[in-house]
Write a structure and sequence with these properties.
The protein contains nine helices and 20 strands. By secondary structure, it is an alpha+beta fold. The protein folds into two domains: 117 residues, Creatinase/prolidase N-terminal domain (Creatine Amidinohydrolase, Chain A, domain 1, 3-Layer(aba) Sandwich), CATH 3.40.350.10; 218 residues, Creatinase/methionine aminopeptidase superfamily (Creatine Amidinohydrolase). The chain is elongated, with a radius of gyration of 23 Å. The protein starts with a helix and ends with a strand. Bound molecules: manganese (II) ion. The site of manganese (II) ion has 5 residues, from loops.
Length: 343
């Protein structure tokens, strides 16, 4: 738990508190759960959840303060705890929340501090990632072993049902894209599955922590060019995981992937990866012009892709990587090209 670091930061920056509203991802981060109610106060002494009387949760490291009359009780609470100068998460605040806070306090944007704080993961967080990834692996296996789907939408539905059955939920709307659909951003997922590549990109949210995995399989029998392209993307994905090092600039890793793509670089149209956590895109951003570094304890994706609108070949392979002296690939589904007969 990173609450001691918050206290140090408050002292060093002469702030009385950091105030977070319920929908802020940092709010979920600090309570270590999916709770989204009230206002959070992180102060040099104690941490509080300022809540309506409807809620009486128990969270390690927090005291619950219930209000009857919001305005009156808020003022009294702030006065009692001598909160004058506060840190706010500027980018997550609504306009009315910002003006409310500015009316009552002197504010300083601490969003960068919070982002950085979340970047290296604790053991407890990594255990949650492992579980989220294990469930993703299970669902992938289930898709392959039960392949009777007629449309992309059928597979999306299957992923959602399996997530619910595992007692979790999806981390984001799954992307299931077949043949030419794999190379365009928007398409009709209701049309029948056809011969060609099929991209399956989905994730699970386990106790607030998100996995994000992509596998590309083939429906029918791939030709030599298609198989070759798959092997190329796979080899780049493996090499990039291998190359990732503590302290490396994220952009260096992205450029490495681009170099390996060679003449196909123009068909690699997105970043190489992104950090994961309580949000699906966190630090670091592994892409062109990124200023981030890969730090010890971070969890991020490595996901090179190839999308050629002329040939209709679309391929993406994505794993979640936990970076430490000994790297750990958290998603473990096979990356050998799986070819299934079209029903
Ligand atoms: Mn991703």
């Amino acid at each position: 738990m990173k609450l001691p670091q918050v206290k140090k930061y408050l002292l060093a920056n002469k702030l009385d508190a950091i105030i977070l509203f319920n929908k802020d991802p940092n709010f979920r981060y600090f309570v270590k759960g999916d709770f989204e109610h009230g206002i959070m106060f992180l102060t040099k002494k104690n941490n509080y959840l300022f809540l309506s009387q409807l809620y009486a949760p128990k969270f390690e490291g927090f005291r619950v303060v219930q209000w009857k009359d919001f305005k009156k009780d808020f003022k009294a609470f702030v006065r009692k705890n001598r909160i004058r100068k506060i840190g706010i998460d500027n980018q997550e605040l609504l306009v009315r929340q910002k003006s409310f806070l500015r009316k009552h306090f002197k504010t300083k944007d601490v969003s960068k501090f919070l982002q950085n704080l979340r970047e290296s993961k604790t053991k407890e967080e990594v255990a949650r990632f492992r579980k989220a990834c294990r469930i993703s692996d299970d669902i992938f296996k289930n898709i392959i072993n039960n392949f009777k789907f007629k449309t992309e939408a059928d597979i999306v539905k299957f992923i959602k049902v399996k997530a619910l059955e595992s007692g979790t939920e999806i981390a984001f709307e799954p992307i299931v894209a077949n043949a030419k659909n794999a190379v365009v951003a928007h398409h009709d997922s209701g049309s029948s599955l056809k011969k060609g590549f099929l991209i399956l990109d989905f994730g699970i949210k386990y106790k607030g922590y998100l996995s994000d995995m992509t596998r590309t399989i083939y429906l029918g029998k791939p030709n030599k060019q298609e198989r070759g392209m798959y092997e190329k993307v796979l080899s780049i994905q493996k090499k990039c995981i291998e190359k990732a090092r503590i302290g490396m600039k994220a952009e260096t890793l992205y450029n490495y992937a681009l170099k390996l793509m060679g003449k196909d670089a123009k068909y690699f149209v997105h970043g190489l990866g992104h950090g994961l956590g309580v949000e699906i895109h966190e630090n670091p951003s592994i892409l062109r012009k990124s200023r981030d570094k890969l730090i010890k304890g971070s969890v991020f994706t490595i996901e090179p892709g190839y999308y050629n609108p002329r040939t209709g070949i679309g391929i993406r392979i994505e794993d979640d990587v936990y970076l430490r002296a000994k790297k750990e690939v958290l998603t473990k589904s096979t990356k050998k090209l799986i070819c299934l007969r079209l029903k």
